[in-house]
Write a structure and sequence with these properties.
Elements lengths: L9 H4 L3 H4 L6 H11 L6 E3 L2 H8 L6 E3 H4 E3 L7 H9 L13 H18 L10 E3 L1
Parallel strand pairs: 1-2
Antiparallel strand pairs: 3-4
């Protein structure tokens, strides 16, 4: 059987085919759990949330996507790792780990959103060819 999440690669997500061997949860189960967990007015904060929501086949009306707060020329996005270092002075997603630490990524996205809300676009225009919304 082909892994339904073959688009994940181990080096990025830490997810392997072996992890999925015993999983019986279906996408609709995950969607139901998320709807039960999140109030309708919850604000989701993350980096490149469109990719996560597309994989979940869900939409949500309230988002703060740090990949869209800090945008390069022609709408290209900065990687979370780069923004963490350039704005927060943090080293994340270090190569000595198998995949990303999702908790670290989530906290970093939240810190980037808080920084942007506190300081505004003037304080984050530190990049050449950067368009900060």
């Amino acid at each position: 059987m082909t892994c339904p999440f073959s688009f994940f690669t181990e080096s990025f997500s830490g997810i392997t085919k072996t992890i999925f061997n015993s999983v019986t949860t279906k996408l609709k189960d995950v969607q139901r759990q998320l709807r039960a967990l999140l109030p309708p007015d919850a604000v989701l904060v993350g980096h490149s949330l469109d990719l996560d929501l597309r994989a979940l086949k869900m939409i949500h009306p309230y988002l703060i996507d740090t990949s869209l707060l800090y945008v390069r020329e022609q709408g290209r996005r900065f990687k979370l790792k780069f923004l963490a270092k350039a704005i927060l002075g943090k080293d994340i997603q270090r190569p000595n780990r198998l995949g990303h630490d999702t908790t670290e990524d989530a906290r970093t996205a939240l810190e980037l959103a808080q920084y942007f809300l506190k300081n505004g676009p003037e304080k984050v225009s530190i990049f050449d060819q950067c368009v900060c919304l």
